[in-house]
Amino acid sequence: MAVTDAVLDAQGTTEPRVDAAALHTQRPKDLQRSFQLWLAVVWLLDAVLQIQPFMFTPGKNGFSGMIGGTASGNPGWIADMITWNASIVNHHPVLTNTLFAGIQFVIGFGIIWRRTCKAALGLSIAWAIAVWWFGEGLGGIFSGAATPFGGGPGGVLFYAVLAVVLWPREGPDTPFVAARALGARAARVVWVVVWAVLAVLYLVGSGRSPQALQSVVTSTEGGEPGWLVHLDRYSASLLGHDGTELAIVLAALCCVAAISVYLPAAYTQVVIVLVVVAFSLIWVAVQNVGGILASGATDPNSAPLVVLLVLVYWPLSDRRRAALPRGRSGTFALSCAEANSTGGVDLGTRSIATREV
Amino acid sequence: MGMTMAMEPSWLYYLFAVLMLCVAGYSSVLLAMAGLSRRPAGWDVELSHLVMGVAMAGMFVAGWSFGPSAMWEAFFGALLIWFVVQCGRSLLAYGAHLPHTAVHALMSLAMLLMYWFPMGASQGSMSMSMSSSAAGPRVDPGLALVIAFLLFVSAVFTLASNRKGGSVYGTHLAVVAAGGPMTTQVGDTADVSGEVGLAGTTSAAGGLEGFVSRPSLLDGAHVVMCVAMGFMLILML
Fold first, then answer.
1. What is the largest CA-CA distance in chain A?
2. Is there a domain that residue A317 lies in?
3. pLDDT digits (tens, 9 = 90+) for B32-86
4. What total of structural domains would you count in chain A?
5. Average of pLDDT values for A173-189?
6. Residues B133/B135/B137/B139 CA torsion (nearest 10 deg)
7. How close does chain B come to A161, measured CA to CA in Å?
């Protein structure tokens, strides 16, 4: 008879109670899978944001107006394509927005199922590039407005990067999760490129102007809740005229981050913590939670995705490396096989069940 | 919202309302089955899904709402207290972990917030078709977003979980036999925390009962509820 401690405990046939922590620490988690699921959560959030009422509304106050607004400042041929896209959305707001939301639901739910995960991630890459081009005006790179303060070079690009570094693949999560998909060397190259781009964008265009921070904050202030407006005003008054200095500091942080992946694990972890703190503050105090709280956003902007990305590069301890010699198949599949061979028990309680019975 | 509401897709709200009623109907079937077979495992979750489904259908489509707000608030207040107590009992019984009842407590709290901070007034209940954020005090958007996000997290991780049915019966599933979903080799069991009791609903599962109590359907209902509730909270921003 296959039973668990929980049942035995309820029947009074076993002495020790179930240690819930033990249930979950018997086998190491599949970290790549966990990160994929967090990415799916963000996609699901995006999909729901896409079906907000104003998204179905034509005109300047609707989604088409939001798209059309990104055309300004871009080269003519890019602006024309954005305007063309905005025109289609404007004429068919319900159809197009339903399609857009549907795609994001498909991506989000597709990532959840292992069978469809690769297809969903592939679709997310294509979708992210299309949105970046036609919906975000290439993140403002050509208009000089792509400062990472405001989400440059476009939050949607990070979805594509995350899809690449979280591409399902058998193997160990060493020396960090991203290495499993690409190999350590290629994953480090991706990391360096991302941080180099961010460092450059902090220093070019409008991002390096003294008023850069203040202008980003004030442009997203409308409709925000009171506490966030107060926080905005505080951050604007604190650093509102020091945009250049702050941009240089953050560019330097990006450079340090870029090389940190080649440093010993302890240094990398310190840098990652710093990046997480910095981008969390930027997300709340500058990007205003992506504008979601003002009911005018289709995504949470770039900062949460940057945080997710850097966590994918968190150096794993030697202990965990030893615990994950076979990657995904080494945990889940092994459990399945053993569960089947023992007559079928709950995977999460396998080890306890075999111990007790 | 305001003037832009003219282009709101009413079909979307009807879709969500129908889904909510489907979840409510499904939960009522499960409740009836549990009552007939005197195996009450998971009854609290099913009852909450039933009440939430009916209430939210009335929020999405004004004409489908009924009853005073006070009645619904009393329901969800009681559910919130119940699930918080269950969380506490589970923590005491099993040590530090995240009880599955936590998300149901969160959902009950979300429902209370929806009634405390309605987007519009329509005979004592909320109505999407009459929504207007200027009608009264708003729920803090930050709180609404956090709850919505947690509900999405629950939806995603429920679907991805290897422990099917965990959204209703918790992660301390009693036994999952290899031969079929949620069948068991153990007799009726009643977990002290109210978390398990899986055997009570699924032993000798087969036929209609086996189909209705399929773990994937149980989790599916929870996921639909989470997404719809998250959507409603996003609308409240």
1. 77
2. yes
3. 888 887 766 788 899 999 999 999 999 999 899 988 999 999 999 999 999 999 9
4. 1
5. 93
6. -30
7. 21
Distance of alpha carbon B83 from its chain centroid, rounded?
Answer: 12
The helix/strand count (H/E) of chain A reads as 19, 0
Neighbours of A262 (CB within 10 A): 11
> What pTM, to 2 d.p., does this model score?
0.82
Are B164 and B215 contacting, i.e. CB atoms less than 8 angstroms apart?
yes
Task: Identify which of A74, A128, A57 has the alpha carbon closest to the alpha carbon of residue A295.
Answer: A57
Q: Tell me how far apart the alpha carbons of residues A154 and A146 are, in angstroms, rounded to a whole number.
A: 7
Collect all residues with Cβ–Cβ distance below 8 Å to A182 and sequence separation of at least 6. A164, A165, A167, A190
What number of other Cβ atoms are within 10 A of residue A273's Cβ? Answer: 12
pLDDT grade for A295, boundaries at 50, 70 and 90: confident
Q: Is residue A18 part of a domain?
A: no
Task: Report CB contact under 8 Å: B174, A7.
Answer: yes
B1, B174, B185 member nearest A53 (Cβ): B1
- State the pLDDT at residue B33: 86
| Residue among A17, A37, A343 minimizing CB distance to B160 | A37
What pLDDT, on the 0 to 100 scale, is given for residue A31? 92
Looking at beta carbons, which residues of chain B come within 8 Å of A349?
172-173
- B122, β-bridge pairs: B125
Residues in B touching A340 (Cβ below 8 Å): 178
Task: Count the residues in chain A.
Answer: 357
Q: With an 8 Å Cβ cutoff, are B4 and A57 in contact? A: yes
Give the residue extent of every domain in chain B.
10-235
A51 touches chain B (CB under 8 A): yes
ipTM of the complex model: 0.81
Q: Is A301 on the interface with B (CB under 8 A)?
A: no
How distant is the Cα of A94 from the closest Cα of chain B, in angstroms? 7
| Most B CBs within 10 Å, among A3, A4, A7, to test the B interface | A7
Domain containing A36 equals 29-323
